[in-house]
Amino acid sequence: MLAQCTVVVPTIGRPSLDVLLDALAAAPGPRPAELVLVDDRPTGAPLHPDRPGLPPVRVVRTGGGGPARARNLGWRTARTEWTAFLDDDVVPDPDWYARLEQDLAGLPADVAGSQGRVRVPLPPDRQPTDWERGTAGLAASSWITADLAYRRSTLAAVGGFDERFPRAFREDSDLALRVMDTGARLVRGERWITHPVRPTDRWVSVRVQAGNADDVLMRRLHGPDWRDRADAALGRRPQHTAVTAAALAAVGLAVARRPGAAAVAAAAWAAGTAEFAWRRIAAGPRDRTEVSTMLATSALIPPLATWHWLRGVVQHVGVRRWKGLPDLVLFDRDGTLVHDYPYNGDPAWVRPVDGAKEALDALRTRGVRVGVVSNQSGVARGLITREQVAACMERLDELLGPFDTIQFCPHGPDDGCGCRKPAPGMVAAACAELGVDPARCVVVGDIGADVEAAAAAGAVAIMVPTPVTRSEEVEAAGHRAGTLTAAVDDVLAGRW
């Protein structure tokens, strides 16, 4: 079973990554097909993960796109049935490989994911700090990707992680809800990881209040009952709103020269802040550092939590379900990727349009596969040979490759074949070759036949008209872009 599993570890280069890799290298038992490390740093020295005992390792880079984008690049890079995600600050048990294999073996087809079990070690000789208690909550959380394996087909069907969640917060719950909305099930396995409490500074509880904006996004995407479905507690946001309102009322009433009312509002603010601080202090070690930290942050958290919640209310108006990136983008050749020289059989005349290489590389960088589907009726007309077509395709691959699939039709318009566009044959064959659902495929071309072939295959089409594209074809195309670069930008932005 592990031969059909890829382990994906997004990382920002923390020292804990070495601990994780050492644990994976030392663990006995079978190995997965591959270990994909997704370097999510904007810059930095290359990672050097190789060590004896690891499965084959591949390192890919996002350039700093955030945890959701990093995980998406990881599973898109993988080609196995299962993708097992691990965070870079966890330590798998020595039997993790064997337990993972047991957890995945024989799962029914309706099970889309398997979550591992998490332990968070806390100090044995004192009460945990506020940060330690927050981290300990991971042990009881549902569907966190600290250790969670998904079927790759499931991830592709729902578009993977929603990259509008910029932090490592709620993006895993959002994915789980979308997966379960398809009718699939998520289960808990028997493998274990340890999640140590990561060292941090005293202001971490202030920074994490930005997650209140993500909670608004969750409500907009999944409805008012999302917390029940995701097993996510409401927390103290209503109290924070009330405390913030009291503070604002105290200031406003003071400005309005109503000192009595202002004093009452200020007292309400002070009481609410004191109650919040004491709850945090009472549960902790009560040493000098922790007490001073709780006092300072308890005054800051309510207004910041309210501010971020209001920011989310404004920011996430009219959001739609995440569509993600397609699994495959197929391009017409002549007139789309390269300048159109009719019935060209000379590789020297294969000349890319402006921005073609950059556009294709942008897709590859995000883990989207690319291919070519090209009518070459010059073969049937006796104007060029198959060998000349192959030579031109080789030159295309040299200039703009590598391509994951190249399909061409040598037939003429009267041959009645099923591959010549507007027939769906080449699009369907490319999808079948790569195991892609046509609904997750985009076809980019310059004429109506490209659009019709995509529709007939169940794919999505984007037309990039040229001066020779007939006006009625342009008008009939549902999605148009002015240039190849603009078409790819639409794909990367989820507008497809």
From TrEMBL:
* Parts forming coiled coils: none
Per the record, a Pfam family?
Glycos_transf_2
- Which GO terms of the molecular function aspect are on file? metal ion binding; phosphatase activity
| Record keywords, A-Z | Carbohydrate metabolism, Cytoplasm, Hydrolase, Metal-binding
Protein localization? Cytoplasm
**Is the Metal-binding keyword given for this protein?**
yes
Boundaries of every Glycosyltransferase 2-like domain copy: 6-118
The record's Gene3D superfamilies line, in alphabetical order, gives:
HAD superfamily/HAD-like (3.40.50.1000), Spore Coat Polysaccharide Biosynthesis Protein SpsA, Chain A (3.90.550.10)
Kindly indicate whether the keyword Calcium belongs to this entry. Answer: no
Entry's Gene Ontology cellular component terms: cytoplasm
Q: Which InterPro entries match?
A: Glyco_trans_2-like, HAD-like_sf, HAD-SF_hydro_IA, HAD-SF_hydro_IIIA, HAD_sf, Heptose_bisP_phosphatase, Histidinol-phos, Nucleotide-diphossugar_trans
Q: Which family does it belong to?
A: Belongs to the GmhB family.
Q: What is this protein called?
A: D,D-heptose 1,7-bisphosphate phosphatase
| Species classification | Bacteria, Bacillati, Actinomycetota, Actinomycetes, Geodermatophilales
